[in-house]
Design a protein that fits this description.
alpha+beta; Aminopeptidase; eight-stranded mixed sheet; globular
Length: about 180
């Protein structure tokens, strides 16, 4: 079972069904903000939708294809970080994340992405971890940069969101270049 203490007062825990009400209320509070960047927000309308997401990610975990962890800060659920799209043939996976606005600006997501990258490379022995960020999403791009990921290039118009195509920057960390 994955869990990690990030710092005093902030930790990651595998998302479970019982977390659905608290996670749904966090999404509700951040809906207008998150929908600028995340395609799933507009199709996540009810607590049942969140529950279905948690169940899907628990299936993903059970089949060894990744997992979603809740980020708890100051006693409440602040956001989510996910390791997914694990490809065991090529030993790679992708990290995605979001954080409620009141928890931003403290380095919590940088710590969470560092913990998940470490887990992917050291525990799961993946060779490659990817993070994809819209070119206009400076706060998201800052995270892989801060963690020493390499910008490999731009996937042109790779995401259709809010009636526009966004370019995505592809960042990666390789096992060979990874320093704890
Ligand atoms: C992307 C997102 C998680 C980044 O949140 P964030 O709070 O900026 O990231 P962190 O928690 O790592 O905090 C970094 C900030 O804290 C500051 N900070 C303070 N202490 C820090 C520490 N110990 N370590 C790192 N940064 C620290 C950094 O300077 C930075 O602030 P700045 O942007 O003013 O320079 C958030 O903006 C978000 O959820 N956006 C919407 C969803 C989204 O875009 N997801 C990504 C899709 S690809």
């Amino acid at each position: 079972m994955f869990s990690a203490i990030l710092r005093p007062g902030a930790e990651l825990r595998l998302l479970e069904e019982r977390h659905a009400p608290a996670l749904f209320s966090r999404v509700e509070r951040e809906r207008e903000y998150l929908r600028q960047w995340m395609p799933w927000v507009d199709v996540t309308r009810t607590e049942e939708d969140i529950l279905a997401f948690i169940r899907r990610m628990l299936d993903t975990f059970a089949s060894n294809q990744g997992f979603s962890a809740g980020i708890w800060a100051d006693g409440s659920i602040a956001g989510v970080i996910t390791l997914h799209k694990i490809d065991w043939v090529n030993r790679k996976g992708e990290i995605g994340y979001w954080l409620g606005r009141e928890f931003q600006g403290r380095g919590i997501m940088t710590d969470a992405a560092r913990a998940l990258t470490d887990h992917a490379i050291v525990e799961l022995q993946l060779n490659r971890v990817e993070i994809l960020c819209a070119t206009g999403n400076a706060k998201s791009r800052a995270i892989p940069k801060r963690l020493g990921f390499t910008l490999e290039g731009v996937l042109r118009e790779a995401q259709f969101l809010n009636e526009r195509y966004d370019d995505l920057e592809l960042y990666s960390m390789l096992r060979g270049g990874y320093r704890r």
